[in-house]
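Q: I have 210 residues here and want to know how they pack in 3D. Can you give me a structure?
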Amino acid sequence: MEFDGAFELENTTVEEVWLALSDPVLIRDSLPGCEFLIEVDDGDVDFEEQKAAAAERDAEPTGDPEVIAQRAFEEGKRYAALIEVSVGSVNPQFQTTVTIDSREFPEMSASGEGEASGSSFELSSGMELEETENGVTVEWWASTEVFGRIAQMGQRMINPVANRVVKRFFERIQERLEELTLQTDGAESMVDEESDSQGLSQRIRDKIGI
């Protein structure tokens, strides 16, 4: 199954969006149905153990480039997520592992696999950011192979679900960007004045190496 699309994020910069999409904590909080998203080693992942430990993690979304740089996605690293998505009459919890295949500003790609309740999938995905007059366009794509019960529902049922999840995800990213106003030294807002925005963009570049 092939999926792709574009989403417009307003009143922001490519650097700010890249920073937001580099933060596993913000992604976790923006992805509908996601209970946790953490870096893991190679090998089997004990999802029940990770779920139980999730409540003890106190990491919160932040606008501080230094904090995000310390926990940002890294090329070659593997991450595990537990995600519940309603598909038709079922609400499977997908135990998912994803590897960041490439991450070079302003593009990122990943691949992974997951399973839930007699169903499984394999995927590859990617995104590219492009500056626009009003903000940033996120071009995204995904290619998946789905097996088991969910596959039997067919793409005509799965497509609307995937589009709904993606749409809600980017809406939350937009909301987070507005809420956090990615602060500079705890004082100035992220997009207060053009000069401040340009200064923050350079600070982001410096801190996360782009």
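Q: Anything worth noting?
A: The chain has a mean pLDDT of 85. The helical segments are 14-21, 24-30, 47-54, 65-71, 149-153, 155-180, 194-208.
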